[in-house]
Amino acid sequence: MLSFLYKTTRKDKSHSDYQIKGIFMRFAKLFGAATLFVSMIASAQAGIIVTVKVKNSTTGPAAYTFEYFSGSVAPSPSTILPSATTTFALTSVADTVSGMRFVYTSGSKKCRFAASHQVNPTTKTPSWTKMGTSTGSDKATCNANITAIQSAPPYNYTVEFEIK
Description:
Blueprint: H1 15-44, E1 49-56, E2 63-69, E3 71-74, E4 85-92, E5 97-106, E6 109-119, E7 126-134, E8 142-149, E9 157-163
């Protein structure tokens, strides 16, 4: 199978030629088995789901700006009308860590929101963080609350943000 990796200059194949071929065949089988094992582990280690709710308590629409997500988001965040709430889900790429950071702006009020979780590799203890920071020219109130957590794998959680 991997005979292109070596070249025999004799017409007859010696015992060592067959040994080399056998080593390459065993390596190829071992590599294939390892790849299959890793893919099975990866599919078993599905990422966590973070439910994100953002409420706009301002008098104008709040426009969304992307900064960072560790995974995929659905549906895509967008502008929120006054007194309305939007919900989306972040599916993280791992169950040991998740993170996000984004901004909502309403007029001259701007809130940078962030949330994350991580699992201590030694103690296997999860921890969660959340943050809402006013960054606009007018002071905004930027609330961040984690309202639900799953304390065992896959550590799903819900975080609620509010701009006002």
